[in-house]
Amino acid sequence: MSKPLKIDFVSDIACPWCVIGLGGLETALNRLGESAAADIHFQPFELNPNMPPEGQNVAEHIAQKYGSTPEQSAATRKMIHDRAAEVGFRMATNEKSRIYNTFHAHRLLHWAGLEGRQLALKRALFTAYFTEGQNPGDYDVLVAAAVAAGLDGEKAREVLNQGLYAAEVRAAEQHWLRAGINSVPAVIVNDRYLISGGQPAEAFEQALRNILAKAA
């Protein structure tokens, strides 16, 4: 009999490690098969909540935030690309890529959760940003991602234009900050267990098996 796993996946659209973490988590859940019944909820977190609409060059941003040299940034980017490829995701970022504000993407993800298409939209948004280099704060980009995820494009644009779910997203962001989440991805299982970072599938699988064993 399958045991329930409530999974809150706290993450940001502009977080490459969140792509890797999601891939590892999904692989682990596939390996668990029918022993677990996972219910994944994507929770909002903004790495750069004060980022202006036009965004910022990624190399410039990383240099300012972490003091990384262009060579260090390039090495880290290659490592991230390789890790993403291991979970079947193609990243095409480079030194000219930009980091954007993601608040509107989180609003749309909240709505997608109500529509039962949150995972599909999350994947579409990751692809739009990391593979296609599009701006996840642009309404046209967001509507296209919604359609790709099987959602109604007109309803998606209505959500965006009317500013819907802004309060809900802000409240959720504050909830996770108060809970001590200050880096992502953060995976909270059954409201009790925390798995931090873009872990490989093996680490997720072992952690989830341990959690299931404790629940037995």
- Class inferred from helices and paired strands: alpha+beta
> How many separate domains make up the residues?
3
**Assembly context of the chains:** single chain
Q: Output the CATH homologous superfamily of the largest domain.
A: Glutaredoxin
Order of helices and strands: EHEEHHEHHHHHEEH
CATH topology value of the largest domain: Glutaredoxin
Q: What is the typical, i.e. mean, pLDDT?
A: 96
CATH-defined architecture of the largest domain: 3-Layer(aba) Sandwich
Biggest β-sheet description: 4 strands, mixed
Determine Rg (CA atoms, Å): 17 Å
Q: How is the largest sheet built, in terms of strand order? A: 2-1-5-6
Q: Give the class-level CATH name of the largest domain.
A: Alpha Beta
The termini sit apart by 11 Å
Shape type: globular
Please give the share of residues in helix: 40-55%
Set down the secondary structure blueprint.
Layout: E1 3-11, H1 16-32, E2 36-44, E3 56-57, H2 58-66, H3 70-86, E4 98-99, H4 103-114, H5 118-131, H6 139-148, H7 153-161, H8 166-178, E5 186-189, E6 193-196, H9 201-215
Q: What's the gist of this structure?
A:
The protein is of the alpha+beta class and 216 residues long.
Structural summary, described in words:
The radius of gyration is 17 Å and the shape is globular. The N and C termini lie close together (11 Å). It is built from 9 helices and 6 strands, in the order E-H-E-E-H-H-E-H-H-H-H-H-E-E-H. The model has no long low-confidence stretch (mean pLDDT 96). A hairpin with a 3-residue loop joins strand 5 and strand 6. Strands 2-1-5-6 form a 4-stranded mixed sheet. A two-stranded antiparallel sheet has the order 3-4. With 216 residues, the chain is an alpha+beta fold. It folds into 3 domains: 1-45 and 181-216, 3-Layer(aba) Sandwich (Glutaredoxin), CATH 3.40.30.10; 56-99, no CATH class; 101-167. Helix 1 crosses helix 9. The chain has helices at residues 16-32, 58-66, 70-86, 103-114, 118-131, 139-148, 153-161, 166-178, 201-215, and strands at 3-11, 36-44, 56-57, 98-99, 186-189, 193-196.
